[in-house]
Every structure is written in structure tokens, then in C-alpha cells.
Design goal:
With about 220 residues, the chain is α+β, with helices and mostly antiparallel strands. It has two domains: about 100 residues, no CATH class; about 70 residues, Beta Barrel (OB fold (Dihydrolipoamide Acetyltransferase, E2P)), CATH 2.40.50. About 40% of the residues lie in helices and about 15% in strands. The protein is built from seven helices and five strands, in the order αααααααβββββ. A five-stranded mixed beta barrel has the order 1-2-3-5-4. Strand 4 and strand 5 form a beta hairpin. Helix 1 packs across helix 4. The longest helix is centred in the middle third of the chain and has 22 residues. The radius of gyration is 21 Å and the shape is elongated. About 15% of the residues have low confidence.
Length: about 220
Amino acid sequence: MSFEELIKVSFNPANSILSILLILSVLYWVFTIISGVGDFDVDFDTDFNADIDVDADIDTPDGMVEVPHDPSSFIQFLKFLNLDIIPITFFLTLVLLFTWLINVNISYLIPLPYWMYFITILPAFIVSLFLTKYISLPLKPIFKEINHKGEEAYDYLGRIGRLKSTIDKDRIGMIEIIINKDPIKLLVKSKDGSLLKEGENVCIVDENPDKKFYWVEKSYEI
């Protein structure tokens, strides 16, 4: 495939969508590298009414998926894709790249009506998900080490935050604390199982041994 053919195939009606997204993704990473902003820390906001009874934004400091004690099928699937370790923006960039490569090659090698190449995007995306999962496996130890170089867990102890969801007994909820003017959200449980309502101020008093969530108590600090 010549360069002219690559440009032509890349910007046919179907592939132009993928090509533009890929260009934007490259620009994002170039900006991130030049500015030094990000450090792979990107919000992953998702509304869940799942097994953990949380209706809040899942926004982890490490730009990854926080896996609760009793995860839903969707969360388990994300963990299967290594998104409990691999940063989501990095993962999605690779998925987009492989989807683009697959669909461009299909467009070049298999003559089809242009509208058919819109349909081939879906199987290309699914294949790319699993391809990225296995390609990212060797990177898990690297990202795990990077993620552990952030703020240590004990730095959260004693901090006051506002609950983003109601918790009691074994129900897991979300707390938002402010550190250096940056909002950080963490998964939490009530220390004694008592009812703590959304919007109340609570204090982080302990950390779960698995480092999946923190224990909190009601704060009476004004």
C-alpha cells in the first residue's frame, strides 16, 4: 500500500471517523508529554446502580477502575480487560489504534460498498479490545509500580471529606476529599456500620487491608 493509497483508504467515509479520532488522540498525548500534565491521571466517570448500591461517579486518583468488594458484571469485565491496573486513556488509545489498523486493512484488501465499512468497525473494535488486553499484560507490573508512586494510603487517614452517597452496614459508598485543591474520590465503608447520609462530612479512620476502600466515621468538625 502506497502512502497515497493509505491516505485515500484512511479517509473514506467510514475510516475518516477513526482517523480523526486517532489524530485527536495523538494530539492529546503530544500535549500531555509536552505540558507534563496528566501523568496518566484522567477521570473515569460512570454512573452505577449496581451491586454495591452506589449512584455516584467512579473517579479514581489513578485514572483506573476501582473494583468494589462485590463488583457487577460490567466491573468484572473491565477488570478482565486489565483496567484495574492499566490507565483507561492509554488502553483506549491502543484500542482505537488497532481498530483503525484493522478497518483500514479490511478496506484496502476486501472490496466492499462504502457503507459496509461502517459495519466492519464493530467487529474490528471487539477484536481490538481483546488484542489490547493481551498486549497490555506485560505492562501491568510497570503501571502497577507507577500507580504506587502516588500519594501513600496513610496520607488519607484523618482527612475529612463529604460523602457522595449514603452508606450503612456493608454498603460501599464514595467520599470526596480535597488535597492541594484537587478533588479526590475514594471508596469507603462505615466503620461501625451506622447510617451515614450523602452530603455528610466524615473522617477517614482506617484502610481496608486489600487497599480497595477506607473506613470512615461521622465527623463533627465544623
